[in-house]
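Narrative summary of target 7.
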Amino acid sequence: MSPSDIDCTTCGACCFGTHDRYIALMPEDRARAIPENLTNDHDGRRFMKMCGGHCAQLARTDDARLVCGIYDMRPEACRAFRAGSFECMKARQHRGALAEAVRNPAPIRPEIIGPETELPPAHVIASMPTGRMKPPA
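Modeled conformation, tokenized:
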């Protein structure tokens, strides 16, 4: 698969991580207008907030695409991530099922779970990938 064959908005696997220190902000990000309330501070370093097993800025569109809510301000780590790269293929292999579960969630049957029930995080709805990844604690 070549990088030109990949539409990142139909995947989003690179935005999924199992801990709150997944997307680190770099010195280059200081000049970007990333609002403080979208980040966490750990031991003097800033990280993008995570929610449900993915970056909190990841949003699903009405046509089932996954897009960045702050794309123009996105961190350097996200800008450096290249479609079709080794890292991209690994993210697709290990977290593609999680992204797919968010892009195309199973229909909710209110008669079974009730309309007031909250949905579980993405890592709970999708089956865990096989391989060397450990399940979230």
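The chain has one domain: 3-125.
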